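Researcher: Go.
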Amino acid sequence: MDEAIFSKIEAHTPEWVKDAIFYQIFPDRFAQSNSLSKPSNLESWDSPPTTYGYKGGDLLGIAEKIEYLSDLGVTALYLNPIFQSASNHRYHTHDYFQVDPILGGNAALRKLLDVAHINGIRVILDGVFNHCSRGFYQFNHALESGAASPYLDWFIYHGFPVQAYGVNRPNYDAWWNLPALPKFNVKTPAVREFLWSVGRYWLDFGVDGWRLDVPEEIDDDEFWREFRRQVKKVNPEAYICGEIWKDARRWLQGDQFDSVMNYLFTQACLSFFVKNLDHSTITGTGYNSFSGGDDAAKFGAAIEQLLQLYSPEITAAQLNLLDSHDTARFLTSARHDETALRLATLFQMTYPGAPSIYYGTEIGLVGGKDPDCRPTFPWDEKRWNTSLQSYFKKAIALRKRFPALRRGEYRSLYATGSLYLFGRKDEQDQLMIAFNVADNPVELPLVNDATFLPEGSLLLDVFSGSKQAFRIGPHGRVEGLTISARTGMVFQVLQVKG
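Model: Structure:
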């Protein structure tokens, strides 16, 4: 890689992201404050999610639940859109400078930021800059005034009067030709300046970065380069993560984004850890084709390809997720096989990059494609899978305990049949992580990597709680070590003197 590009990445990739545990929250569905008055026509909290209905969650409710997030081990929140909007998901923005009053307004965000920061938790907002809503002032002006509006160059119109309601295809550029989502004309200087000012404003307010919605739709690298320059000028440690589902090297050269939502990682995990993938839950999404499960060689090849795709500095900042607001829940895609989620979560917590948990996945929340994947969080603990939640906490604690899992070298050690082994190493610690996705136990094979697993050293189990230790014999042979069915194990490699 060019040295100038490398220095850009080295200088601007936020170090804190490498240590972060992200938690993605759909604000309307996470928590509702008792101190914030609400409109009367809300769906009941426990009713199934619907396309248009509101549940009443708000930012003060999230602030009141900060102890839950802190106890889980979360260090960063990614909030789905919070700005004023007439849609429950708020990707139809009315006003980019006002938090939706149903969520508590700007004062509620101030409270959440203060509470989050006191607890060592950063807050990332969802930036929807490709399109807005029919209620956005400059668009609504043209809707009312027609060709006489002074804001015609903010959007691309194909006739007047503006046909924004009661039509299948609008007479203006809109995202996926949806009339409710007029697309900004980012070639207009006033539009560019407006969107950059939004990025600056909320960083000045105290947020810690942006997740960018469909940024490839703004097919203008210089727009994003200037966005980065202005964001980093306000806060050099701000995080910029783009929603790109594919190879994102175009945007990850050190001059646009810090990372992307790593759906290539998600796809690899679904392909390997899930025994019987429900393909109906992934059709029509941004995923590519899926291979069958329990093929460690294919998985190992996919991971090596992913590791080679970006520089190590970029890989260390990627947002690694298992599910999101745009996908079916992982457990649903896995046909409720909890072992698949446990395996994938342990891999997520031991792999380079920033792990991201979609709210409720840690307690076993299920759901199909949108809107089914957006249920409310059930605050009745009797409905939680507490065993799964404990597993998440343990995996997060493991990641925090060993910096090598966050910043260390990654080395593939074995990928055959149902067994995948890899190592993580830094100046202090060396670990080996093993996954067996088969329905039967598998003995640890020969691992011919004397530099990573030298003869005479010990493998200390640091995850299962057994505290067992196994000695590495000649040629990497380990006697008596069996990886149980559908299990992941983590070993600390200890050098033994004498």
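Model: The chain is about 30% helix and 15% strand.
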